[in-house]
Amino acid sequence: MLTGLQTHFADANAYPVEGRGLTYTYAFFCPKHSGTGSAYLLSFRDQAGEPLHGAQTYRLHVPAEAPVRQFWSATAYDRATHALIREAPWPSRSSDTPGLLKNPDGSVDVQFGPKPPSRGEGNWIPTKAGGDFEVLFRFYGPKPELFEKRWRLTDIERLSVH
Questions:
Q1: Are 65 and 153 in contact (CB under 8 A)?
Q2: Which of 63, 66, 78, 84 could form an SS bridge with 91, CB 3.0 to 4.6 Å?
């Protein structure tokens, strides 16, 4: 990690990760403060417990009325480095994304995969074939319904196998 910081991560093929720091960050960076700050949910497996593969297509159904005072976002990261997926045109979608399509009931389907869906590119987060990925779902200004588990985010569903 020190070499990366000293060189401003000049080597594009290396992203050093220090395991203890990563564990600390995932475990403690998100205190529960209703209405302020943020809360995060991390997933690196689909509804069947299988790793999220960049060559496959998945859907995350975000139920209506997400418990946020500000907005929610879903971001895909490279599982090997925990960094954004290299060369992806964008890493995330949020409830504030222009062109985001909502279902008639107010819910939103976010799609992950190497190719855009036939409908709703504004709901698509590109992945990269040849590697696994993880999804970090963020709640900005979380409401009590989240911490009281009165609103639940669904598991990521695999739509296709390539």
A1: no
A2: 84
User: Which residues, 6+ apart, have CB-to-CB distance to 109 below 8 Å?
Assistant: 59, 60, 61, 62, 101, 103, 120, 123
**What does the block give as tokens for 99?**
């062109």
Which residues have C-beta within 8 Å of that of residue 27, sequence separation ≥ 6? Answer: none
The answer to whether residues 128 and 107 touch, using CB atoms and an 8 Å cutoff, is: no
The string of pLDDT tens digits covering residues 46-101 is 999 999 999 999 999 999 999 999 999 999 999 998 899 999 999 999 999 999 99
Query: CA-CA distance, 115 to 45, in Å (whole number)?
Result: 20
Place of tokens 């990760």: 17
Alpha-carbon distance 64 to 115, whole Å? 26
Instruction: Find where tokens 């949910």 sit.
Output: 41
Calpha distance 133→131 (Å, rounded): 7
Structural domains for the chain: 1-30 (no CATH), 33-160 (2.60.120.600)
The distance of Cα 40 from the centroid of its chain, to the nearest Å, equals 9
CB 152 within 8 A of CB 60: no
